[in-house]
Amino acid sequence: MLQDTEEMGRLLGVSIDAAQAHRAHYEAMAEYSDLRLAGQEVDWDWWMERYFTILGVVDPHLAGDKTDHGYGLWNHALEGVGKAVEQLRDSGVRVAVVSNSDGSVRGSLGKAGLLDLFEFVVDSHEVGVAKPDPNIFLAALERMGLEPSNAWYVGDSVFHDVNGARAAGLSRALLVDPYGLGPADVSRIVSVAELV
Q1: pLDDT tens for residues 48-81?
Q2: How buried is 18 (Cβ within 10 angstroms: 0-12 exposed, 13-18 middle, 19+ buried)?
Q3: Is 127 exposed, middle or buried (0-12, 13-18, 19+ CB in 10 A)?
Q4: Is the dihedral of CA 95, 19, 59, 65 positive or negative?
Q5: What share of the chain is helix, strand, coil (3-state, %, to 5)?
Q6: Model pTM?
Q7: 96 with 119: CB under 8 angstroms?
Q8: Which of 39, 96, 101, 173 is least buried, going by the fewest C-beta atoms within 10 A?
Q9: In the 8-state DSSP scheme, what is residue 189?
């Protein structure tokens, strides 16, 4: 999903270009994953500050506070994602969401018109465990009645998504990487639409 750049800009008193925000997300996420994989203890606040720095926001530290750390602003579907998920589901592929969130992910998916496409949503805030802990993936698989070897996971973070899914024993973990920022040893796709 994309952030609501208009709402974010209104909160910050600046104009934010949606295409720049999209790229900034992936750049900050790639840097975050690299640091975490190198053993550095950076967190979501670090990611937010880096994201706003890339966007050129004058006070990136305060920007996270003004936007409630970005939660609830992710509410626009990326082009082609809804159709792709619908096609996967209609072809018999079961689809669900596993998200590190603060309890707002269902609302964000609903605003983006995606919520009804998924069988269910696992929100880390509600289950008390977050990616990359394999238990959040295993909770989703248990709910689906699937073995890890029969499931794939697709996400935008090597640290949280790819490594978490691998630790849980999933058959495949794919990185959504539209700008080619991820490591060469990770299976990458440009968009969820490629899954079809």
Answers
A1: 889 888 888 767 566 566 555 555 555 667 788 9
A2: middle
A3: middle
A4: negative
A5: 50, 10, 35
A6: 0.88
A7: yes
A8: 39
A9: E
CB-side exposure of 178: number of CA atoms within 13 Å?
14
Is 169 within 8 Å of 152 (Cβ atoms)? no
Q: Report domain extents, the chain.
A: 2-73, 77-195
CA angle 26, 27, 31 (to 5 degrees): 115
d(Cα 196, Cα 193) in Å, to the nearest integer?
Answer: 6
The radius of gyration of the chain from alpha carbons, rounded to an integer in Å, stands at 16
Q: Which among 25, 189, 49 has a CA at the least distance from the CA of 17? A: 25
Which ranges of 13-59 does DSSP label H, i.e. alpha helix?
18-37, 44-54
Q: Which of 157, 160, 131, 159 is nearest to 37 (CA)?
A: 159
Helix (H, G, I), strand (E, B) or coil at 12: helix
The per-residue pLDDT for range 134-151, each reduced to its tens digit, is 999 999 999 999 999 999
**What would the DSSP string read from start to end of 150-176?**
G-EEEES-IIIIIHHHHHTT-SEEEEE
